[in-house]
Amino acid sequence: TAGITQAPTSQILAAGRSMTLRCTQDMRHNAMYWYRQDLGLGLRLIHYSNTAGTTGKGEVPDGYSVSRANTDDFPLTLASAVPSQTSVYFCASSPGLAGGYNEQFFGPGTRLTVL
Amino acid sequence: GQQVMQIPQYQHVQEGEDFTTYCNSSTTLSNIQWYKQRPGGHPVFLIQLVKSGEVKKQKRLTFQFGEAKKNSSLHITATQTTDVGTYFCAGPRRNNDMRFGAGTRLTVKP
What residues in A contact B42, CB-CB < 8 Å? Predict the structure, then answer.
């Protein structure tokens, strides 16, 4: 069982370009999340989804969009990247609904640099 | 909104010394989770505390949840080099997501 996979592992992106970070889970979890991790700020939630077809905004959603067409995939799109979006991005999933009492399982992360 | 504050930000210890990280919330938490992230890795769930005053142990790790459910701590006895990493606490926010603390980065000198 792979758990959660993310692609790409790392990327250098020119400012103003768009990019989609991919995330796939094989655990049939209902909830999925996107976090960004910056030094000294911990993990901050960007968007989440409780089930296919539904998404919600987290703590820092501006500049990002997500979709949840099915249970397994939860791509994160940067429509027009800016240098402040340089970060490590983690996808996560959990059984049941987002938040609350559910353990979150994290993917390996995508390191994004916007120049 | 609900904030989860974690201290210290960094801790450097000699192998064999004890280590403690503290997590404080501005509001009462229904539960709190702890995660560990090894250098270059991803966060991995350690434990969840739910009850007021709860204490749980995992080998050399002891987790506590305060009586008022506003604070929590993780204590490691006799640290080893394998304990190196960043430890995060996380508390729920409006049942839609978990708010993570900034983490405590532990380094251990052999």
Answer: 90, 106-109
Dihedral sign from CA coordinates of A55, A59, A60, A62: positive
Residues B76-107 pLDDT 10s: 999 999 999 999 999 987 656 788 999 999 99
Q: A3 CA to chain B: closest CA distance, Å?
A: 12
Residues of A in contact with B3 (CB under 8 A): none
A98 chain-B contacts, CB cut-off 8 A: 95-97
Burial class (CB in 10 A: 0-12, 13-18, 19+), A32: buried
Give how far B42 is from chain A: nearest CA, Å.
6
Q: What angle do CA B11, A92, B64 make, to 5 degrees?
A: 45
Q: Quote the tokens at residue A57.
A: 């905004």
